[in-house]
C-alpha cells in the first residue's frame, strides 16, 4: 500500500518530493515484509503424525490393551498398555502407521 502511494506521489509531485516519497514507500514495504517473515518463521505448523503427539483423546472403545480413541473428531485404533475405560481422557505418545499409542492422563473426560 505504501509503495502504491509512493508511485502515485512520484507521478504527481515535482522533484524532490515524488522520488523521495517513492523511496519512503519502498522502505516501508521492505520493512513490513521483513517483519512478517520473522514473525511467520517463529510459528511452526505441525501436521501429520508429529501433530498428533501430545494431544488428548477420548476413549471410544475400551483399551485393554487395544481399543479405539477419538481425537480431533477422528476415530483411531489405539494401544494403551496400562488400559483405559470408555470416556477416559488419554494422551497420545506415539504413532505407528494408523495406530496410536496412548497413556491415561487421569484428567476428566473431554
| H and E order | HHHEEEEE
Number of helical runs? Answer: 3
SS elements, strand count: 5
What's the CATH superfamily of the largest domain, by name? Answer: Nucleic acid-binding proteins
Q: Reading side by side through the largest sheet, how are the strands ordered?
A: 1-2-3-5-4
Q: Briefly note the structural class of the backbone.
A: alpha+beta
What kind of assembly state do the chains in view correspond to? single chain
Question: What would you call the shape?
Answer: rod-shaped
End-to-end gap:
46 Å
Structural domain count: 2
The radius of gyration is 27 Å
CATH fold name of the largest domain: OB fold (Dihydrolipoamide Acetyltransferase, E2P)
- Mind describing the biggest β-sheet? 5 strands, mixed, barrel
CATH level 1 name of the largest domain: Mainly Beta
Percent of residues in beta strands? 25-35%
Low-pLDDT runs of 5+ residues are none
Task: Tell me what you see in this structure.
With 110 residues, this protein is α+β, with helices and mostly antiparallel strands. The chain has 2 domains: 41 residues; 56 residues, Nucleic acid-binding proteins (OB fold (Dihydrolipoamide Acetyltransferase, E2P), Beta Barrel), CATH 2.40.50.140. The protein has a 5-stranded mixed barrel. The longest helix has 26 residues. It is rod-shaped. The two termini are 46 Å apart. The relative contact order is 0.13. The model has no long low-confidence stretch (mean pLDDT 87).
Amino acid at each position: 500500500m505504501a509503495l502504491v502511494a509512493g508511485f502515485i506521489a512520484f507521478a504527481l509531485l515535482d522533484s524532490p518530493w515524488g522520488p523521495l516519497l517513492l523511496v519512503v514507500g519502498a522502505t516501508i514495504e521492505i520493512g513490513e515484509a521483513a517483519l512478517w517473515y520473522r514473525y511467520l518463521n517463529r510459528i511452526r505448523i505441525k501436521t501429520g503424525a508429529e501433530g498428533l503427539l501430545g494431544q488428548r483423546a477420548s476413549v471410544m472403545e475400551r483399551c485393554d490393551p487395544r481399543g479405539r480413541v477419538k481425537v480431533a473428531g477422528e476415530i483411531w485404533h489405539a494401544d494403551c498398555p496400562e488400559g483405559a475405560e470408555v470416556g477416559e481422557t488419554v494422551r497420545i505418545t506415539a504413532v505407528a502407521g494408523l495406530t496410536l499409542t496412548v497413556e491415561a492422563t487421569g484428567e476428566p473426560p473431554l
